[in-house]
C-alpha cells in the first residue's frame, strides 16, 4: 500500500488508511485491464493499447489524439492542428514490429477501442482522429469500436457535471482541459470497456486514493516521483476480484500545472466506487463496479532533447512521450515510459 492522500477538492470523502510509499498488489483480473487518456495521454494510451495489447486485454480509449507511431515518420505537428497525417509508414511499422517490438497486432481484433474528439478542437482535431480510426481499422473488429464526435467541444476531457476550475466546453484549448460538455467521457469509455455498470457515485466516496513512489521500475525519464491509484473499498482486502483501468492525463494536466483536477474532475473515480441505494427496509449495498483506477504522472522537463526527426525539443508541459523525447523506441515495448506504466500495472495485479 502507499500513502493515503486526503484531497479537499475531491468530491466526497475518501476513507481508509495506508502506510508507506510502495505500490501494493490487489486481486485484479488480468483480463480486465484497460487504459485511456487525453491528448498526449491519448497518444500514450494508443501506444500502450497497440504495443502492449497482451497486457491491456480489455482494450483502450483515446480522447483527442492521433495515429499510432505518427510523429516518427513526419514532424509531430502534422499529427495535430487538424492536419491530415500520413498513416502509411506507421501502419506498415505496426505490421513489421508485430510479435517483436510490439505484441501481435492480431490481438487488436479482440480489443475494445473507444475514440472521442471534440468537433471544435484546434489542438488535435477531428482529422488526426479520423486517421487513427482508419489506421486501427486495418486490424480491429468494427463491432468493438466506438467513435464519438462531441459537437462544439474544444480540446478538453468531456464530462456531464460541473466541477471547480473547469474550462467552458466550447473554448478551444484552456486549462485544466476538463469541461462539462453534457457528455460523460469517463463513464462512456468505462462502459465501452466493461459493459453495463452500476450508476456512478456522485456522493461520498468509500475507497482510498493512494500516493505511491513512482521511481525505480515504476518510473522513467519525464515521469514524476509520485503517482496515484484509487482503490475501491471492496478491493482493498483482496477478497473481491476487481478490474483495473489506467487513466492518463494530457499535457499541462500533471499536478504541477493543475493540482489534482484530473483525478477530481474527470469522473473516473466516481465510476470506480460503491453504489448505495436507500430502500424502505434498509440501506442496501448493490453490486459494485470495483474498478481500480491507476493515475501515473509526468513532470515538467525543460531540457531540450532530440525527438524523432532530429529536432531539439524540451517538454515543459509534462506531456507523455509520443514524439521520441526519451528514446527512439518510445512507442515500442522497450520504451521507458511504456515499461514503467506496465510495471505499475503488473504490480497492482501481483505478477
TrEMBL record:
Q: Where is the Peptidase S9 prolyl oligopeptidase catalytic domain?
A: 28-158
User: Is-annotated flag, keyword Nucleus?
Assistant: no
Signal peptide positions (record): 1-20
Q: Name one GO biological process term.
A: proteolysis
Q: Which UniProt keywords apply?
A: Signal
Coiled-coil intervals, chain numbering: none
Annotated GO molecular function terms are: serine-type peptidase activity
Q: Name one Pfam family in it.
A: Peptidase_S9
Question: Known PANTHER family for this protein?
Answer: POLYHYDROXYBUTYRATE DEPOLYMERASE (PTHR42972:SF8), TOL-PAL SYSTEM PROTEIN TOLB (PTHR42972)
Q: What is this protein called?
A: Peptidase S9 prolyl oligopeptidase catalytic domain-containing protein
Instruction: Tell me the organism.
Output: Hapsidospora chrysogenum (strain ATCC 11550 / CBS 779.69 / DSM 880 / IAM 14645 / JCM 23072 / IMI 49137)
